[in-house]
Amino acid sequence: MIRTTALLVIDAQVGIVEGPGIGPVYEHAQFVQTMKSLIEKARSQSVPVFYVQDVDVAEHGAEAYAIHPAIAPLPGEPVIQKKATDSFYGTDLHEQLQSHGINHLVIMGCKTEYCVDSACRKATTLGYDVTLVKDAHSTTDNEVLQAEQIIAHHNTVLHGLGNLEPFVIVRGSDEDVLVPSHDSYR
């Protein structure tokens, strides 16, 4: 099967990445730089970039609501507004991906244990192979774990997670994550 890739950027909004309130996320400056590099690489290779924006982060139009300016979408790049943790629930994300013939998603964004985790899991049940970029998702500390522990935990738990045929692979941004490697494990 031919794999067609899209890059999915989840909730990389100013209010989460930089704060105040929800953020800043763990190692936010490096996190933004890693996302920026991957977005530029995707664009240079004509890999479509899809953005998901959480409507509950801040009031629409507020600076905190905006996608981080260092990685802002270009005109014509889809921005999907969501109300739920699951990027697919109540949105047309799946339909848009299908209209582009996408069957492999490279996922990065915020927050690891909520929206990133949900997107990875849901994508496999919808038939997508997923590459989670291990150093391009981030979160904040909680009452039990430090952000670094949450990220490491999810990189371990999600690697190899599958639902029937599609599954998640966790790879670093130093690898060619835009080229799916799932078939080498099948």
Automatic annotation (TrEMBL):
Statement: the UniProt record of this protein carries the keyword Cell division: no
Protein name from the UniProt record: Amidase
Pfam families xrefs: Isochorismatase
Database matches in Gene3D superfamilies: Isochorismatase-like
Membership in a protein family: Belongs to the isochorismatase family.
Domain Isochorismatase-like: 5-143
PANTHER family the UniProt entry points to: ISOCHORISMATASE, PEROXYUREIDOACRYLATE/UREIDOACRYLATE AMIDOHYDROLASE-RELATED
Molecular function terms from GO: hydrolase activity
Swiss-Prot/TrEMBL keywords: Hydrolase
Signal peptide (residue range): none
